[in-house]
Design goal:
Elements lengths: L8 H11 L10 H4 L5 E6 L2 E2 H12 L2 E4 L1 H4 L3 E2 L2 E6 H8 L5 E5 L4 E6 L18 E2 L14 E2 L7 E2 L7 E5 H7 L4 H4 L6 E2 L14 E2 L5 E4 L2 E2 L15 E8 L3 H4 L6 E7 L7 E9 L3 E11 L6 E13 L6 E16 L2 E15 L33 E16 L4 E24 L5 E28 L2 E24 L3 E2 L16 E20 L2 E20 L4 E20 L5 E12 L14 E12 L6 E18 L6 E2 L2 E2 L1 E19 L4 E16 L3 E3 L11 E3 L11 E10 L8 E10 L2 E2 L7 E2 L2 E13 L7 E9 L7 E4 L5 E3 L4 E9 L1
Parallel strand pairs: 3-7, 14-17
Antiparallel strand pairs: 1-5, 2-4, 3-8, 6-7, 9-10, 11-16, 12-13, 14-15, 16-17, 18-19, 18-48, 19-20, 20-21, 21-22, 22-23, 23-24, 24-25, 25-26, 25-27, 26-28, 28-29, 29-30, 30-31, 31-32, 32-33, 33-36, 34-35, 36-37, 37-40, 38-39, 40-41, 41-44, 42-43, 44-45, 45-48, 46-47
C-alpha cells in the first residue's frame, strides 16, 4: 500500500479545511479494507512483551486491547521481517500463554489461552482494566509511559519529543496512595509541590522550574479563581503529564513553567469493576467505586462511572475536609475510524480544611519568648470559617479518520464552579511576639468557562520524509463574578489560643466581574527523516480581558479592558540512536497578558517566556525503563518593575515599567523503570538557580533583631520565595510473585527539598527537609472468580513524623508541612 502523496497536497488541503466552510468529503479508509493476511514489514526488538505489542500496534496501524496483568513481566522474542498481522501477533505471543482475537479489521483483544489449550496461571498482580497499547489516554502497566499527547497534541513517543516531559501513571499513584495533585507530583523532577504545606489539601499550589504552572484537563485549560478553583481528585485520573518549559505554541497564554495535563479515566473495552475502602490517621474515611466495560457485544458502546466519598479531620486543629465526587464517561465507536466520548463530572467540597498561616517567629525563627508554635496551630475560628466549593463539567472528545492520512479532532468542555469562603486568619505578629493580629475575608464566587479545540492532522510521506502535520484553532472564554469583603477580627495568642470570640462577617465591599477570551490558531510539523526528528510550530493568539468593579459602599463603578496579540514559536530536534539514546535541543516561547498601565496610560504588553533546553533521553531496547536529563535556561521578560523616574506617578505611588526579568537556569534528571515483574522504581533530582535578573524595585524587610520594618533593599539578584535550589527523590516498590509470599510487596521512598527563601528581600531562610514514605501491600487473586483480585495496603507518609516548615511568603506568613499519615485500604476488583 503506497502512502506517497505530492508534498504540497496535505498542507493546501488542511488550510482549506481550516479556513473555508467547505463540506468534508468522506474517504473510505484503506485500513478498513485491508485484510489481516496482507503482508507488512515489522522491526520489533526482543524484550518486554508490553513494549513489543506497543511497537506492533504502531507499525501495523492497529489498536490492541488487553489487561496489563496479562503481559506484565513477560517477554517476547521480537519480530523482524515481512509478516501478516495474524502471523506477527502469533510470533510475538509465542510462549506467553496468550492469544489475539480479532474484534474488527483494526482492533484485536489479547486474552489468555483457555485451560484446555494449555493456559498458564495468571500471576497475582493488580488488575487495572483493559487498555490500548499504548494509548496516550489509557492505563500503563507499571511506572513507565512511552507515549503522550501533552507535548505535541498528537499521539507521539516521548523519546521523539524534544522537551522535558514526565508522566505519572495510575500504577504509581496507587502504589504511593496519592490522592491529590500535590501528592501525585511529589516524586517528579523540578516540581516543588505542597508549597503551602498542610493547607495544600485545599488548593493545588506548586511550582515547576520556579514558576506556577497552568493546569489542563484532557488538553483543555482549567479556569481558576482561588476560592472557586476546581480540584480534581486523583481517583478520577488515569495519568498526569508534566510538560516543562514554555508551551504557548500549543496552549496559548500561560506561565513559562509549562503545563500540567490531567488525563481522566475513559471507558474500557473489557469489563472492569472496583470498590474500595480506606481508613487512616486524622479520622480519615474514604470509599470509592469504579465501573466500566462495553454495553454491547460489538464494542460500539462502552461506559465508565466512578465515584467517591472522602471525609477527614485536617492536620490543623478544629478543621475538616470533605468531598463527594461522581464522574461519568460514555464512548460511541460506530467504526474503527470514528469515536465520540462524552465526559461528565460533579464534585462538592463542603469542607476545605484551613488556609491559615503562622508567623516566622516561633516557627522558622526562634522566638525571643523561647517557645515554638504548635504544628497544629489554628489561626481561625471554627464557628466562623467556611469553605464550600461545588463544580460540574460536561464535555466531549471527538475523533474521525477519513483515511490513513487525514484525521479531525474536536475537544470541548463547559465548566461551572461556585465557591463560598469565610475566614479569619493571621495577618501579622505584634511587638510582644505572641499576639496575632487577625483579618477577616468573605467571598462569593461564580465561575463559568468554555473551552473548544479543533484539530486537523495529516500523516503522510514525501519520499524518505515522514510528516505529521497538525493545524488547530482553539477558543477559551472565562467569566468570574466575585463579591468580596474584608475586615478586622479579634486578636489571638499564638502560644495559648482561646477560641470562641465573636467574629463579624465583613459586608461585601465590591462586586467584581472579570471576562477573558482567547482565540488562537496554530500550525505544527513533526518531520522524521531516518533517525532525525524535527519539531517546529508557530501560533498566533488574540486575547482580551474586561474587568468591571462595583463599589457597593459608594455605588461607584470602574472598568478596565485590555486586548493583547502575540506570536509564539517552537523549534526542536532529536536524534535517535539505535542503542536507545536520544539527544535533543529545543527552543520554546510563552506569553501571558498583563493588566494595568504605566506612565501616561501606557498599556502593558504581555510578559514573554523564552527557553533554551538541551538534554538526552534514554530508552534501552528490550527494557521497560526511561531516563531523561535536561539543562535549561528559562527567562521571563516584560515583568513590571518600578519606574526609575521618581516624577512618574500613577495613583498613589510610583508608576511601573516593564523592564523586569526573572531567570531560571538549572539541571534535572529523572528515571523510571519497571525492571521486571517485581520491581518498580522512580528517581529524580533537580538543581535550580532562580533569580530576579532585572529589576528597579526595592522592598523593606524585617531584620532578625526586631519585628519592625527595616530599610529598603533592591530585589535584583534575589530568588523568588519558596523556590529551593536542590530537590531530590527516590521511590521503589518490590512485589513477590512466587513462593509462599506470592502477592506480597513493600515500597519505600525518600524526598529531599532544599532550603528556600521566605521573603522577597532574601533575608529569611527556610531550612530544607527530608521525608520518608513507605507502603506494604498484599494482592490476593481468585477470591470468587479467576479474574478478581483483593488488594490490601498500608501506606505511610512522613514516616518519621518530622516537623518542618514547608515555605514562607514573608515574616508574617509561614506554613508547617504535613505530619505523618498512615492509611489502610482494601480494594476489590473483578
Amino acid at each position: 500500500m503506497s502512502r506517497f502523496v505530492r508534498p504540497m497536497h496535505p498542507l493546501a488541503l488542511s488550510v482549506a479545511l481550516a479556513c473555508a466552510a467547505i463540506p468534508l468529503f468522506t474517504v473510505q479508509s484503506s485500513w478498513a479494507d485491508e485484510s489481516s493476511s496482507a503482508v507488512h514489514s515489522f522491526s520489533i526488538p526482543a524484550g518486554d512483551l508490553s513494549q513489543a505489542l506497543n511497537g506492533f500496534a504502531e507499525q501495523g496501524g492497529l489498536v490492541l486491547a488487553f489487561d496489563p496483568a496479562l503481559t506484565r513481566g513477560k517477554r517476547s522474542n521480537g519480530l523482524n521481517g515481512q509478516f501478516s498481522r495474524d502471523a506477527a501477533l502469533a510470533h510475538l505471543l509465542a510462549g506467553s500463554g496468550l492469544r489475539a482475537e480479532a474484534l474488527s479489521a483494526q482492533r484485536y483483544r489479547i486474552e489468555t489461552i483457555p485451560q484446555a489449550e494449555g493456559a498458564v496461571e495468571l500471576q497475582a498482580t493488580t488488575i487495572s482494566g483493559a487498555y490500548q497499547s499504548e494509548s496516550p489516554t489509557g492505563p500503563v502497566a507499571g511506572y513507565v509511559a512511552t507515549r503522550s499527547l501533552s507535548g505535541t497534541k498528537t499521539d507521539s513517543a516521548l523519546i521523539e519529543t524534544p522537551q522535558s516531559i514526565s508522566v505519572v501513571t495510575k500504577d504509581q499513584m496507587r502504589a504511593q496512595n496519592a490522592e491529590s495533585l500535590n501528592q501525585i507530583l511529589r516524586y517528579s523532577a523540578a516540581v516543588v509541590p505542597e508549597t503551602r504545606g498542610a493547607t495544600a489539601s485545599r488548593l493545588d499550589q506548586l511550582t515547576i522550574r520556579g514558576f506556577a504552572p497552568a493546569t489542563y484537563l484532557d488538553g483543555l485549560r482549567v479556569a481558576s479563581s482561588r476560592d472557586a478553583s476546581p480540584q480534581k481528585d486523583a481517583f478520577d485520573l488515569e495519568r498526569v503529564e508534566v510538560l516543562r518549559g514554555p508551551a504557548s505554541v500549543l496552549y496559548g497564554q500561560g506561565s513559562p513553567s509549562g503545563v500540567i495535563n490531567l488525563v481522566t479515566k475513559r471507558p474500557l473495552d473489557t469489563p472492569f469493576h472496583e470498590v474500595g475502602v480506606e481508613y487512616g490517621t486524622f479520622n480519615k474515611k474514604r470509599t470509592t467505586f469504579d465501573l466500566s466495560g462495553p454495553l454491547d457485544d460489538q464494542g460500539v458502546y462502552s461506559y465508565r462511572v466512578a465515584g467517591l466519598f472522602d471525609d477527614a479531620d485536617g492536620q490543623v486543629e478544629h478543621t475538616e475536609t470533605r468531598r463527594q465526587s461522581l464522574s461519568t464517561a460514555f464512548t460511541w465507536r460506530p467504526s474503527d475510524a470514528t469515536s465520540l466520548t462524552l465526559l461528565g463530572h460533579f464534585q462538592k467540597d463542603p469542607k476545605g480544611a484551613s488556609y491559615g498561616s503562622m508567623p516566622a517567629w516561633g516557627s522558622v525563627l526562634h522566638s525571643p519568648l523561647g517557645r515554638s508554635i504548635d504544628v497544629d496551630f489554628y489561626d481561625g475560628e471554627k464557628n466562623f470559617e467556611k469553605s464550600d466549593r461545588e463544580h460540574f463539567s460536561l464535555g466531549y472528545a471527538f475523533e474521525h479518520h477519513f483515511n490513513d492520512i487525514w484525521t479531525v479532532r474536536q475537544n470541548a468542555r463547559y465548566m461551572r464552579s461556585e465557591g463560598i469562603y469565610r475566614s479569619i486568619y493571621h495577618s501579622n505578629l505584634q511587638a510582644d511576639y505572641r499576639t496575632s493580629t487577625r483579618s477577616t475575608i468573605a467571598t462569593d464566587v461564580d465561575l463559568d468557562a468554555y473551552n473548544l479545540d479543533n484539530q486537523i492532522q495529516a500523516k503522510f510521506d514525501t519520499g524518505s520524509l515522514q510528516h505529521t502535520l497538525l493545524m488547530g484553532l482553539d477558543y477559551q472564554n472565562t467569566s468570574t463574578d466575585t463579591k468580596a469583603g474584608y475586615g478586622r477580627g479579634p486578636d489571638l495568642d499564638i502560644f495559648d489560643p482561646v477560641y470562641g470570640a465573636p467574629v463579624e462577617t465583613p459586608a461585601f465591599g465590591t462586586d467584581a466581574t472579570a471576562r477573558s477570551e482567547q482565540t488562537g490558531v496554530y500550525l505544527q510539523e513533526q518531520l522524521k527523516w531516518g533517525q532525525w526528528v524535527l519539531l517546529m510550530g508557530g501560533r498566533y493568539d488574540w486575547a482580551s480581558t474586561d474587568n468591571t468593579t462595583l463599589n457597593l459602599k459608594s455605588n461607584s463603578k470602574s472598568r478596565s479592558s485590555l486586548d493583547s496579540k502575540a506570536f509564539t514559536g517552537r523549534l526542536g530536534v532529536v536524534y535517535l540512536f539505535d542503542n536507545g539514546l536520544a539527544p535533543y535541543a529545543s527552543y520554546s516561547e510563552s506569553f501571558s497578558p498583563q493588566s494595568g498601565t504605566g506612565y501616561g496610560g501606557t498599556v502593558f504588553e504581555p510578559t514573554e517566556g523564552k527557553q533554551y533546553e538541551i538534554g538526552i533521553k534514554y530508552q534501552p531496547p528490550g527494557s521497560n525503563s526511561f531516563i531523561t536529563a535536561a539543562i535549561f535556561d528559562l527567562r521571563q521578560s516584560n515583568v513590571p518593575t518600578m519606574d526609575p523616574d521618581p516624577t512618574h506617578l500613577c495613583g498613589n505611588g510610583r508608576c511601573q515599567v516593564q523592564d523586569g526579568e526573572v531567570q531560571s537556569r538549572g539541571f534535572e534528571l529523572e528515571g523510571k523503570a519497571s525492571l521486571n515483574d517485581n520491581l518498580d522504581i522512580t528517581a529524580a533530582y533537580a538543581y535550580l538557580d532562580n533569580r530576579i535578573s532585572k529589576s528597579n524595585s526595592t522592598v523593606s524587610y524585617a531584620p532578625i533583631t526586631d519585628i519592625g520594618v527595616g530599610p529598603a533593599v533592591p530585589t535584583k539578584g534575589t530568588t523568588t520565595y519558596g523556590v529551593p535550589r536542590h530537590t531530590a527523590s527516590v521511590w521503589a516498590d518490590y512485589t513477590l510473585h512466587d513462593g509462599n509470599l506470592k502477592g506480597f510487596g513493600v515500597g519505600a521512598g525518600a524526598r529531599y527539598v532544599g532550603s528556600s527563601w521566605g521573603d522577597t528581600a532574601n533575608t529569611l531562610k527556610v531550612p530544607g527537609y527530608t521525608l520518608f514514605d513507605a507502603s506494604v501491600h498484599y494482592d490476593i487473586p481468585h477470591i470468587n472468580t479467576l479474574d478478581d483480585n483483593l488488594r490490601l495496603a498500608l501506606n505511610a507518609t512522613n514516616l518519621a513524623n518530622k516537623e518542618y516548615v514547608a515555605s514562607c511568603y514573608s515574616y508574617s506568613w509561614c506554613w508547617y508541612g504535613a505530619q505523618r499519615t498512615v492509611q489502610a485500604s482494601a480494594t476489590y476488583q473483578w
